[in-house]
Amino acid sequence: YPLDRAARDEDARMDLVQQYLENYYNLKKDAKQFVRRKDSSPVVKKIQEMQKFLGLEVTGKLDSDTLEVMRKPRCGVPDVGHFN
Amino acid sequence: TFPGMPKWRKTHLTYRIVNYTLDLPKDAVDSAIEKALKVWEEVTPLTFSRLYEGEADIMISFAVREHGDFYPFDGPGKVLAHAYAPGPGINGDAHFDDDEQWTKDTTGTNLFLVAAHELGHTLGLFHSDNTEALMYPVYNPLTDLTRFHLSQDDVNGIQSLYGPHPGYPEKPLVPKETVPPETETPATCDSALSFDAISTLRGEILFFKDRHFWRKSLRKLEPELYLISSFWPSLPSGMDAAYEVTSKDLVFIFKGNQFWAIRGNEVQAGYPRGIHTLGFPPTVRKIDAAISDKEKKKTYFFVEDKYWRFDENSQSMEQGFPRLIADDFPGVKPKVDAVLQAFGFFYFFSGSSQFEFDPNARMVTNILKSNSWLHC
C-alpha cells in the first residue's frame, strides 16, 4: 500500500504540473509521450520558465513552494503565448 | 502586452454585463465592474460607457464549466476567470467562473480585484512577472482593498498602449499657448519635422523627438507614437543621440555629457556615465549624432563639423580623430541631428532634410524629407 500511495501521489503531481504547463506555459501536448517523466528536458525547461515568471527559486524541480503556487487560484489566461 | 500588441484603436469603449452571479446583489456586481474600469480609466485616455443589450466591445459574463469558448472552467478554485485581448467578437470579452464564491470582500473571491485584472486583459495587457502587479497571474487574497493601487508595472504597460491620462499626473490646466512646445504631441507629417536622435532597436527603428518617439517596425506601414517615459521613465527627453550595438543587444542614449545604456525596456545599472569615459577630449560638451556600423564594429560620433570613430572591439577611440565630416562624407552638411544605417546607405538627418550617403561611392545619392520614414 505505502508504495501504491506514493506512486499515486507522484502521478497526481505529474498530472497537476503537466496540465499547468500545457495550460499556461505552452508545453506542447504532443510532448505527452515523454512528458510523464518529470525530469525530461522539455518539462524541466518549462518548470524553470514557470518558476522564473512566478518569482520562485528556479530549481527545475517540483519543490513544495512551486507546488503551493501552482495550487493557488489564478487567471486562466496563459503566461506564455495566448489563447489560440 | 499580448504577442502582436493588440489594442483598441479608439479610446471610448462600451461594456455590457450580460448576466449575473447569484453570489452578490446585482448592484454590487455593477459597482465592482465600474470600480474595476475606473482603475484603468484613471491612468489612460480610455473612457467606458455601459450597454444593456446588443454587442458591446467588452462583454462580461458569468459561466460554469464548458461555456462555448473551448476553455471550460474547472469548478471551485484553480481558474477563477479568463479574458481575451482587444478585438471583435469574443475578443475583448471577460468570463468569470460562477463556481467561485464571488464576494465584495476577501472572504471569498473578490470580484473587483479579479475584474480589474481581467479587464486589463480586455484592454491588451498580458500577465506580469512582477509579483506586486495587478496583472500577476496568481490571485492574492491578502490584497488590502482599502489601499489598492496599480503597480508602476501595470501603469507602464497600459500607457505603452494608450499613453497617459490627459491630466495624469494631475497638473493644473494651463492655456494652450503657454504649454511648452515639447510637451505637445509632435505632428508626424509636418514637413519641417526634425529629429533629436534615431536608433534601431531589435529590428525596429526609433525616431526620438522631445518627450516622444515614433516606433517603426518593418512589418507595419504605420509608425506608432509613444512617450519615452512610458517605456523608460528614467531616460531624459530631448536627447542628443542614440545608437544600437546589435552584438550586445544594447541601445546607447546620449544627452549633454552623459549617456545611458538600455536593453529592451530596461535601463542598465551603472548608467548614466560621462561621455569622456569613451575617450572624448574635455572640449567636447555633447555629441550631435552617432551610428554603430555592425559590420565594421566601428561607432561614429558626430560633433559639429567633425567626427570621431570608436572601435567596439578594443572599446577605445581610434587615433587620428577627429576628422572633418566634409572630408569623409562629402555633401553631408553639419550639424548632423541623427544618423541611420540601412540598405547599405548612411542616412544623415539635418533639420527637415535627410542626406542618403553611399559609403562605397562616397557621395550623397539622394536628399529627402526627414520624416519620409514615417509613411507620410
Describe the structure.
Helices cover 56% and strands 2% of the residues of chain A. Chain A is mostly helical. Chain A is globular. Chain B has a five-stranded mixed β-sheet with strand order 2-1-3-5-4, covered by helices on one side. About 4% of the residues of chain B have low confidence. Chains A and B meet through strand 1 of A and strand 4 and helix 2 of B.
Q: What is the strand tally of chain A?
A: 1
Beta-strand portion of chain B reads: 25-35%
In helices, the fraction of residues of chain A equals 55-70%
Shape of chain B: elongated
Strand order of the largest sheet of chain B: 2-1-3-5-4
Low-confidence stretches of chain B: 168-183
Distance between the termini of chain B: 27 Å
Largest sheet: number of strands, sense, barrel closure of chain B: 5 strands, mixed
Measured on Cα atoms, how large is the radius of gyration of chain B?
25 Å
Low-confidence stretches of chain A: 31-35
Task: Write the SSE topology.
The complex is a heterodimer of chains A (84) and B (376).
Chain A (H helix, E strand, L loop, with lengths): L1 H23 L7 H4 L5 H13 L10 H7 L3 E2 L9
Chain B lengths: L11 E6 L8 H16 L5 E4 L7 E6 L15 E5 L10 E4 L4 E2 L5 E2 H12 L29 H11 L34 E5 L2 E6 L2 E6 L6 E4 H4 L9 E5 L4 E6 L2 E6 L2 E2 L5 E2 L14 E5 L4 E6 L2 E6 L4 E2 L5 E2 H4 L9 E5 L2 E6 L2 E6 L4 E7 L7
Parallel strand pairs in B: 1-2, 1-3, 3-5, 6-7
Antiparallel strand pairs in B: 4-5, 8-9, 9-10, 10-11, 12-13, 13-14, 14-15, 14-16, 17-18, 18-19, 19-20, 19-21, 22-23, 23-24, 24-25
Helix pairs in contact in B: 1-2
Keywords:
heterodimer; A: 84 residues; mainly alpha; 4 helices; B: 376 residues; alpha+beta; 5-stranded mixed beta sheet; 5-stranded antiparallel beta sheet; 5 helices; 25 strands; 31% strand; elongated
